[in-house]
Amino acid sequence: MRIAIIGGGPIGIEAALYGASAGFDVRLFERGEIADNVSRWNFVQVFTEWGRNRSPLAARLLKARGETLPPDEEYSSGAELVSYMRKLAALEPLQNRIFPQTKVLAITREACLRSDYIGQSRRREYSFRLLLRDSQGTERIENFDAVFDASGVYASPNWIGSGGAPCPGELNCKDCIDYALPDVMGKERARFAGGSTLVVGSGHSAASTLLSVADLMDEFPTTKLVWVVRRNVPSHGAPFTLVPEETSTTRAKLHHRANALVNHPNVRFLHSTVVEKIEHDGACFRVQVSAPEIGEHWFEVDNIAGHTGFRADPELWQELPVEIHPPTGAPRKLGEALNAHNKINGVGLSTGYAEKQPLKEAGETRDGAFDRWSFLINDPQLLQTGEPNFFVLGIKSYGRDAGFLMHNGFRQVRDVFKLLSGDDDLDLYEGALNS
């Protein structure tokens, strides 16, 4: 079976390694270089430990090559994760299987429209047809029996404006807005030190940027922050609910420090607030907001960080009958499972930990610590998309839901190869991820 894998991120690389090791003919296409998106936040400390960010298969193969791996309980930086991924790409099973600087422009079925043979196994008789473009601009067609879209969501951030649409002026200013994490303490330091920054959002990315800017305040006392949260906050008045049974000390510290900023003299915190309009004169931004506390108000800032989450871009699926879950934008079966799980745990979609509640407030009781992020994907059927042999893996498979972690993706990789092989016992992780 010939398999195309789109995306050279953590789950794309893992899928290629797993497939090649299991005897499949895999080809990985990455529009840039391997780990390109991760390298853009290489200055960030990852909040999950190495034991959940590398698979048993990858660890086994790297050790066999003589690599020394950090302990499972240690945490990595983004730069260390990039180095790890590029070592995986250099392993022998992936030789001549990775094609960087190759963009997938379209996925179709050969001589078969998306409206043909809906719900019929006959669609499998028509191979997938990928239109590819290399770094020289040359386009070509390649055919495959199965396709995995693991291209991620980094290039499709959510807009700042109300209701998920751009606010007036946002499209004109989008190239000046930091939707991805800026390197505040590194190469972008001069832009933030002593200036004013608007941060919109209440997830991990927002907290990370807020805390990085706040770290500049002692050295540069004129550094200011405006923190806008679009929803209401819990009764304690801070964005993050601190949960006693939190399973990650890194996340707990992040939430605690971010909550403290609400009362910082250099921080203006506005909840239940909508960004109505953005203007940019080439030097600074003028931003109009509406908030219960202040009504409609204009203020000027030097920087805007729009950390309102990401969405799955379905453009590559346009000619395939992929069933999409409306709230999340994820493939339907997985989206429904995520939605049901979030409802049990008392959280909404695409809000990260912002609305996480103690279990007693969510109406649930469990024994021991419970971590929403640890929701297991142990049912291969959840990966079915409505198009035979087409799968969406990794963070893109969660759509707008912020709950994806890499060990969830490793389980997806294992399960998708169970589906393709027809062998329920196929497990190159040797049972290590069954719980």
Describe the structure.
It is a single chain. This protein has 435 residues and is α/β, with parallel strands linked by helices. The chain is built from eleven helices and 17 strands. It has helices spanning 10-21, 36-39, 50-53, 56-64, 78-89, 170-173, 189-192, 204-214, 249-260, 332-345, 406-421; strands at 2-6, 25-29, 45-49, 75-77, 98-99, 103-109, 128-133, 139-144, 146-149, 196-200, 224-228, 267-270, 274-280, 285-291, 295-301, 303-306, 390-392. A five-stranded parallel β-sheet has the order 5-2-1-9-17, covered by helices on one side. A four-stranded parallel β-sheet has the order 12-11-10-16, covered by helices on one side. Helix 1 (10-21) links the parallel strand 1 and strand 2.
SSE layout:
Elements: E1 2-6, H1 10-21, E2 25-29, H2 36-39, E3 45-49, H3 50-53, H4 56-64, E4 75-77, H5 78-89, E5 98-99, E6 103-109, E7 128-133, E8 139-144, E9 146-149, H6 170-173, H7 189-192, E10 196-200, H8 204-214, E11 224-228, H9 249-260, E12 267-270, E13 274-280, E14 285-291, E15 295-301, E16 303-306, H10 332-345, E17 390-392, H11 406-421
